[in-house]
Amino acid sequence: MSTRQESIKEAVQEIERYVSGYGWDGPIRVFALIRSAEALADHPELAEELPADVSLNAAESDESLFSVEQEELPPADSVEGLLDQLAWPEGVAGAAVTCERITLPPEAEADIPTDPAEAEKFLATDERREDVRMAVGAMRTGEAWCCLRMKSFDADDSVLSSTDLVPELVEALRRTFE
User: 110 phi and psi, to 5 degrees?
Assistant: First the structure.
């Protein structure tokens, strides 16, 4: 794994652990990923506010990343709709998003009512449902990482991760750099 790929992996895993600390049923969260060394060079006072190991990691690798949560996001009907509204300045090396979804096994999809209100009620109560939280990051240079936490296996050592767990969100994040 390249140093750049390792950096996006570490950043997304850190974001996922941070968001998991707030529990379930949380909002969509968006993060800018900036190169730590550049941020510390531009704003040396940041080093005083960070844990010692963070500034040490930034000094050891030009690829090390800081995540900066974005506030006051524009309204949107979906995470994809939200990401379609975002664009990043050149100083932002990557971006990440976290969101929660309800999943059902394929055999349950035929049972979902067509009426939206009934479908929502069905999804909220069906015993086959699985609540999942996705944390997905993408770099301007193309690298990506995804983490998936299931509510039924809500432990740090049970988080699934790879470069392509949620390809649609990876692509939506990449479009924010166009």
Answer: -65, -20
Say if residue 71's pLDDT is above 60.
yes
116 class by beta-carbon count within 10 Å (0-12 exposed, 13-18 middle, 19+ buried): exposed
Give the C-alpha separation, 97 to 28, whole Å: 7
pLDDT of residue 58: 56
- Provide the phi-psi class of 56: left if phi over 0, else alpha when psi is between -120 and 50, else beta: alpha
- Pair 8, 143: CB distance under 8 Å: yes
When pLDDT is cut at 50, 70 and 90, the band that residue 41 belongs to is confident
SS3 content of the chain, % helix, strand, coil (to 5): 40, 25, 35
Q: What is the gyration radius of the CA atoms in the chain, in angstroms?
A: 18
Residue 103 has pLDDT above 60, yes or no: yes
Quickly list DSSP for 125-150.
H-TT-EEEEEEEEEETTS-EEEEEEE
Q: Amino acid identity, residue 169? A: L
Q: Kindly report the pTM of this predicted structure.
A: 0.85
